[in-house]
Amino acid sequence: MDIETLCIHGSKKSYDTTGAICVPIFTSATYSHPGVGVSTGFDYSRTQNPTREHLENTIAALEGGCGAVAYSSGMAAASALMELFTPGDHIVASDDLYGGSYRLFEQISVKNGITFSYADSVKDLIASISLSTKAIFIETPTNPMMQVVSIAAVSEITKKHGLLLIVDNTFLTPYFQRPLSLGADIVLHSATKYLGGHNDALAGLLVAKNVDVYERLRAITNTTGAVLSPFDSYLITRGIKTLAVRMERQQETAQKLASWLEDREEVTRVYYVGLPNHPNLETTLKQSSGFGGMISFSVRNEEIAVKLLERVKVIQYAESLGGVESLITYPALQTHGDIPEEIRIARGIDSRLLRLSVGLESANDLICDLQQALEG
Fold first, then answer.
1. Which of 95, 168, 185, 369 is catalytic?
2. Is 193 a catalytic residue?
3. Domains along the chain?
4. Are strands 316-317 and 294-299 parallel, antiparallel or unpaired?
5. Would you call 46 a catalytic residue per the annotation?
6. Is 300 one of the annotated active-site residues of the chain?
7. How far is C-alpha 343 from the geometric centre of its chain's CA atoms?
8. Residue 280 needs a FRET pair 20 to 30 A away by CA distance; which of 2, 11, 22, 221 works?
9. Smallest Cα–Cα separation from 272: which of 233, 298, 248, 305?
């Protein structure tokens, strides 16, 4: 079945006898038993809920995994993921990383006895592996510098050393990239972003390639309890139905904006994986079917950055990404504000860098908005 069809029909399991086209929102916190020792398959909604199960089956089908677990936010999913590890374990992660993931690792996981190394190339990933290493955690493309790493190349490393490979696939989604088919063991999503697509629900998802990892995640989640509500499960499911058309349109517009930004004298560099001059374009073409709708760009000075943020009208100055509304973010103060300044600057996340999430507005209107903000 093509992915466009999977997005719409998702899980084929029926939870309804009325013929309803949309999965019902089951708000029950608990479920009655037909008899002693007999279950309908649902006992208590922290353990499982029919609406949430429908979403989980849908994303598992889209990613090609054996199972998925849905959480109350992307960070709740990442926190549950860290429970796979024990004190003394070591994880190698992408050098360029979402600030919230870095904060979780350095402020929570380190406190719990897990250590981290950060690498910006496959060569550095290999060099960072030690006897205590248990996993490699990568974003591709990275947030916010849009670096791309070969998932297949990293998978060769993890298989050789018996490590888990975890890929944050938030930016491209399974519509453009399927890490499990390239050798990953676990895929992480902030479903708040492109999967939900409407900036109206928080959610996180983990998808596992094999049953053992899936069952461990399911047990962790049942114990810690940060599960996604039935209503938000419905919203994310509804968002996924339009994922294909949204991703295609957002990518089309992003390519136009990235090219336009490259020609502006106020802009010193544009980071977009679909540009011909992107250093990792060849890798992207091998492992992804698209480039997505995320653009980062640097301007000449901080004054231009601040002026642009304060003058945009159609584009909104706000955190998050992946929704139908275009949003512009200041990573140094917002998404990556908790990363120490010296580390941020070394990675290129300075006061001149902006990150743009391209929505579904007219490309012409977005260009006109950026132009008036820059020239005003």
1. 168
2. yes
3. 3-241 (3.40.640.10), 244-375 (3.90.1150.10)
4. unpaired
5. yes
6. no
7. 22
8. 2
9. 298
User: Tokens 């600057």, residue?
Assistant: 345
Catalytic residue among 52, 178, 193, 249: 193
DSSP string, 231-295: HHHHHHHHHHHTHHHHHHHHHHHHHHHHHHHHT-TTEEEEE-TTSTT-TTHHHHHHHBS---SEE
Catalytic residue among 15, 31, 46, 350: 46
Rounded to two decimals, the pTM is: 0.96
13 assigned to active site: no
- Catalytic residue (one of 71, 89, 98, 355): 98
One digit per residue, the tens of pLDDT, for the chain of length 376 reads 899 999 999 877 778 788 888 999 999 999 999 999 999 999 999 999 999 999 999 999 999 999 999 999 999 999 999 999 999 999 999 999 999 999 999 999 999 999 999 999 999 999 999 999 999 999 999 999 999 999 999 999 999 999 999 999 999 999 999 999 999 999 999 999 999 999 999 999 999 999 999 999 999 999 999 999 999 999 999 999 999 999 999 999 999 999 999 999 999 999 999 999 999 999 999 999 999 999 999 999 999 999 999 999 999 999 999 999 999 999 998 888 888 888 888 888 999 999 999 999 999 999 999 999 999 7
